[in-house]
Amino acid sequence: MKTLDITTILGTELKSRTSARDFAMYLQNMKINEVCVDFSRVNSVTRSFMDEFYQLFLKAGMSLNTSVSLQNLNQQADAFLKSVELTSDRPRPAIGVSANARFVNLQTVQQLNEYLESIK
Fold first, then answer.
1. What gap in Å lies between CA 27 and CA 65, rounded to an integer?
2. Do 105 and 99 touch, CB atoms closer than 8 A?
3. pTM given for the model
4. How many Å is the maximal CA-CA distance in the chain?
5. For the CA atoms of 73, 3, 66, 45, what is the dihedral angle to 10 degrees?
6. How many domains does the chain divide into?
7. Which of 42, 93, 104, 117 is most buried, by the most CB atoms less than 10 A from its CB?
8. Cα–Cα distance between 71 and 4 in angstroms, integer?
C-alpha cells in the first residue's frame, strides 16, 4: 500500500469540494489502487472538503476503484469526518423552504400578476 501525503498534492489548506475531486482525479490518473492518505501536514480543512472526500472515497466503496485509508487526521478533520458520516444519508430539506410552504405553478404572466395581486 502506498502512503501519500495529501498536502503534496493539494497544499496544507483543504478548502473545497473541488480539491477533493482534484485529488480523486490525481489518484485515478496515477492508477493507484490502494493508498493510505496522510493528513499529518494539513493545517486546516473545511466540512465541505471532508463531505466530498467522504462521498468520493469512503462511503460504501469508491467508484474510482481505489481502496483508501486515512492516517494522522487532526482534530478538526476528524470531527468533520464524523459529522459527515452521521449526516450523509439524511434527506436534505430545500434551502429556505419551510415545512408549510406550498408551490404555485403558474403558466402565464397574467396568472403571475393575478397571484401577486391576491397576496398583497
1. 10
2. no
3. 0.68
4. 67
5. 30
6. 1
7. 42
8. 10
Element (H, E) at 68: strand 67-71
Q: What is the CATH number of the domain that holds 8?
A: 3.30.750
- Strand order of the β-sheet with 34-38 is 2-5, 34-38, 67-71
- Cα distance between residue 110 and residue 107, in whole Å: 8
**Which structural domain, as residue segments, surrounds residue 37?**
2-91
What cell was used for 41? 501536514
Cβ atoms 21, 57 nearer than 8 A: no
**Does the residue 103 lie in any domain?**
no
- Cβ burial, residue 58 (10 Å; 0-12/13-18/19+): middle
118 within a domain of the structure (yes/no) = no
Cα–Cα distance between 42 and 12 in angstroms, integer?
4
Query: Does residue 108 belong to any structural domain of this protein?
Result: no
| Per-residue model confidence as pLDDT tens digits over 37-70 | 999 999 999 999 999 998 888 775 555 677 888 9
Q: What is the pLDDT of residues 89-98, one digit of tens each?
A: 766 666 666 6
